[in-house]
Fold each of these.
Amino acid sequence: MKKMLQLIVIFTFILSSVSLVTTATSTKAAINNKPGDIIITRSTSSKGVTGHIGIYIDATTILHTSGWSSEPYPKTISESGWHSRYAESKVIRPNSSTLGQFAASKAKYYFQNKNIPYSVTTGPTNISKTYCSELVWYSYYKAGKTFKVFNPASQISTWVTPSIIKPYDYLSSSHLNYNGFSFIDNTW
């Protein structure tokens, strides 16, 4: 009787685990991503910067630059490949779908299949070297949107273009509101 009870408990645990995995997978797949959507993860850190970011160039393809020695230049990754690599991600979208589509086309034009080496540098308009959040920022910049952040050191309310764009700059609700973006998936 005791063994039977243990088997039932183990079987119930396995079923609930499978259910959770299926639910998590279908939740990610249920989002209808659009060109220009920005995906941010907290599942990595590099050179003292926590997080990683990419831009959807179509509904299922993300353009990013990882800085890995095996991926020294910007490259595309499938949405499923992204989620396999980075388990926890959030997605934001510009309030203007036209802007998102234009930014996606600029990302392809300036970064896809380009041998731009990875390096975190100051001055986000210089893309002789680039890093993940600069790639996204620059794509929107060339689409006509300069994503700004609040300058807390200022005595007055000042929004500025930071010298280094950080992935988490895209997670601040005040930054998103000011720049005309919204969360479409705000759960890790």
Amino acid sequence: MAPRPPVPSLEDVLLRLTSEHLSLLASVGARSRPELAAVSWIRGRPPRQADLMVGWRSRFVRNLAHQKDIALAVFFESVFTLSGTAEVVEKLVPGLPVPLARVRLTFDGVYDGLFTGGRLAGPPLYEKVYPPKLANLDRLVEERLDGEPVPTVLAANTSRQRP
């Protein structure tokens, strides 16, 4: 049996998150219970951060209101787990056909999370089955991930002051 690969640095893992990549995101729910979600729209921002897009009303976004701690499992030659915190940096990303939020993840470490003696034979395979009206969704999300967040100003948050 071939030896397991060494654990890469946090920066090396983030450099590999350059396009759509199936990952598992863990957060803490309202009753202090762990919750897990599969995500694929993620972009590494070395040396310690990554941005991801998720539904703006998702359970993950709601969880961040009371607990910022997260973990992200990424699948390469092994399952590398990154631990850290998350913050919504764009509540509602403009120019997308579905309501998504941009979340900034800041990590403080990486470890090999695969069981002893295990090695991945390849990346997990999955297929997206969008309706025709969302055929360009991945491309649009990737373009937004490549850019910087746009501060979101919601009408409900504006104050009306008299001159």
Amino acid sequence: MPLDTSKFNEAVDIYTKVIQSDSENSQAYCSLGNVLYILERYEDAIEAYSNACRINLHFAEAYYNRGLSYTKLGNFSQAQPDYAQAMLIKPDIAEDDYFRGNSCVLLARYEEPLKEPDKTAEAHTSFGNALLDNECFAEAADMFKQALWIDEHNPRAHFGYALALLHLGNIAIALKHHAILKMLDEKRAEHLASYLP
């Protein structure tokens, strides 16, 4: 069923009027960008998010969503710094690590997302998942291994590490992590079992 754009176009008009009456309203620019993104008007969305970032240099959502818009246009080199800036402002956004990871994977710049020393196991795990999705199995295994070094009880990291190892043909160690996963998260372990030989 095609998207009914009438309500979204109405929202564009409303946010545009708000901006006309208050040209320094960063939230209105960001909200306008969100609606334009839904309408797949990514270049217009980027312009709206850029205005939000210009007005409020600490607007994590605007940087993040501008990064998503650049990603939709295939402009990964511009998306990556926006994801990085969003993480600097609001480090607990786990999804940022995933999307930033995807943009770096596509640029073959695996080391960049995790230069900051305060990265958590979840950040490594999210980046590992991005690497897995892009079939960079050795690099993904390394990210999951680092996540497990930080938090050995992280079920997402055990799952991802085992999956990466299976793709690399290292079944023995994958089985070891499957056994650990059974103790940590039975549902995830059952899901992993579907990949085991």
Amino acid sequence: MAKKKGRESVDETLNDLDIPQEESVEQKVALELNDKNSGVIVEQKKGEAIVELETNDTMTLDNQGLISPGAIFHSASYAALLAVNDPNGVCIGSDIKFLAPLESGNLVRFHAKALQSDIKKIEVKVTGEVLEIKVFEGIFYLVIFEKHILRIKLSKRQKEVSNES
């Protein structure tokens, strides 16, 4: 009687296939940001990033240690930029939810995942957790320009319109 392949032999077969795993990528964006206020990159792969932010007293709104939502948004948008990892990418919008208040000393782990790739407008889903409890979720909208946004030259008509304002 033939021996059935068990789960172990299936796993061994999959391991023997030598399927390439997503490798880390070189960081190309946000190279000048301060880790203390943005978070530390834990992992960065094509289309994904994990950032950990340890909240601190410089981020608080009051003497009770309540963290400003702006500090959380900043770190989440940093994770989104890292997931896309294009130096010509710019965040143009977001739909976000703060699901729980945070206090100084919390360690927030943001996981960002691009929902599309190789297009000019990209949506990136970002979740944030403290002790495996979701405290943040959102979608960030990024646009990829041909060159850095501050190096794009306006047409003569666009300059006239902006000068009229």
